[in-house]
Amino acid sequence: MKQALTPSRQEVMLFLEKEVELTGSKYLSSIETNWQPGELLPVASNESFFEEVKILQGQAENMDYDLLAVLVGDTITEEALPTYETWLGALEGVKQNVHGGWMKWIRSWTAEENRHGDVLNRYLYLCGRIDMPKFEASTQFLIADGFDLDTNNDPYRTFMYTSFQELATNISHRRVATLSKKSGNTMLSKICGLVAADEARHANAYISFINRIFEIDTNEMMLAFEDMMRKKIVMPAQALRELGGEINTFANFSDAAQRLGVYTAVDYVNIMRDLIKEWNIESLTGLKENGEKARDYIMKLPDRMARISERIAIPDRELKFSWIIG
Ligand SMILES: [Fe+2]
Ligand SMILES: [Fe+2]
Description:
Blueprint: H1 7-23, H2 37-40, H3 49-61, H4 65-79, H5 81-89, H6 101-127, H7 132-145, H8 155-182, H9 186-216, H10 218-231, H11 249-260, H12 265-278, H13 289-310
């Protein structure tokens, strides 16, 4: 059911806009000193370009098929950034002042995130194992299809989602970094490690926004948290698809990620536990009856989901993605 933003939520967001204007930048790196994709990959203007590409391709040669597929899926997810920026820029209580703290935050966050798709895309382009037009078509599909997370342009629900999602991407990029390093792929490992560190900072930002909302509007925030947990945090690439009508692309991508331990149902439960702790859900006071009920639901959820996740069997079947050559 679509709900308009209640005046109190609008007021809370307007109040916090001034704070975010002052504090948002502490969760971002300065552009002057920030890493850029061009520093991490061979650059065509360098004399040693072809030698460097050879080293890169040598490191990528033995990369596990599933891991490469997960990397492509992660890259497409990052490349769908225009969808996320549009989604955030439409939020009630956020969109009203183009030069206000919230919109400034969204632009600066987007600017940092934009490097992720760039660096990973260029890595895939250079590694020599990717059918580029197929991979690029999947990116175009995902952006054109968009996504609907049923957050109803509500900043409480949306920033709850982004808190969760930034933690999830931190985990998955970090694990790809570790697995790449194990296979001797130091270049990719460094890239994914840096991307993961950005995601961790972004997670802290969104967690801090929600923390403030909990302080100011405890009951409403609890209801929003419960609502998102009931809906489940679906991945932004849920609608992932491939050229030629390949079916189940997202399911295949997700199976590969689970099989490798890059992102699993256990991680989902652990993120939930972390957020419950971060936001002191257990000890918050001043809840109304429906807020108390929402808290009960949230507090019991991790154990319930952990029991379910124990029973989930990861299918052991051969996966095929059009993005990968061979
Ligand atoms: Fe990212
Ligand atoms: Fe992110």
